[in-house]
Amino acid sequence: MRGNSAGKIGSGRDVGLVMAVLVFAGFAATAWGQYEGTILYPITPPAGVTGEMFVNGGDDTGQIVGQVGMTSLLWSTTAAPIILNPTGADFIPFSISGSQLVGMYEGGADLRNSPLGQDVDLNPSGFTLGSHGTSINNSTADSTNGSQQVGYTTTEN
Q1: Mind listing the pLDDT tens digit for each residue in 94-139?
Q2: What is the pLDDT of residue 101?
Q3: How far apart are CA 27 and CA 15, in angstroms?
Q4: Hey, which bits of the chain come out as E strands?
Q5: The whole model's pTM is what?
Q6: In angstroms, what CA-CA distances link 63 with 5, 77, 99, 114, 124?
Q7: Is the CB of residue 112 less than 8 Å from the CB of residue 146?
Q8: CA proximity to 81, closest of 70, 71, 94
Q9: I need a surface site. Which of 58, 71, 77, 120 has the fewest CB within 10 A?
């Protein structure tokens, strides 16, 4: 009689389900406690650079790009961190492979062939950046393999 047992644990199936959930919950709690992390390379900002840290991407040579506050950085296992926007330029790095960095510069998709190299505009032909009435258009280069770049455009209303 389903109508009379609603909300009650009365059948063997209900008890089995509750026990299965409890056993799974116990297993999950035990499994999480088994692993410990090891810091292979500490990521610390240069002296005087403060703010929330965002790690955006890295490559298999030990290079990582990201931001601390409004400062864009390149960390490496072999050198001190490099500030990628020393003049306060609006460059946000998203990916690195070898010497090629991609990201966004002043709202548009951007490529650099070295950390402090010249910015190469990757904004798609015919796509206008900036505010247009009630919409904001931008583009970004999201990833690179060192010779090819991939990204996207957005229009926000």
Answers
A1: 999 999 999 998 888 999 999 999 999 898 877 777 766 666 788 8
A2: 94
A3: 18
A4: 53-58, 63-68, 71-76, 82-83, 91-97, 100-105, 108-112, 120-121, 130-132, 135-144, 149-156
A5: 0.67
A6: 61, 7, 10, 12, 28
A7: no
A8: 71
A9: 77
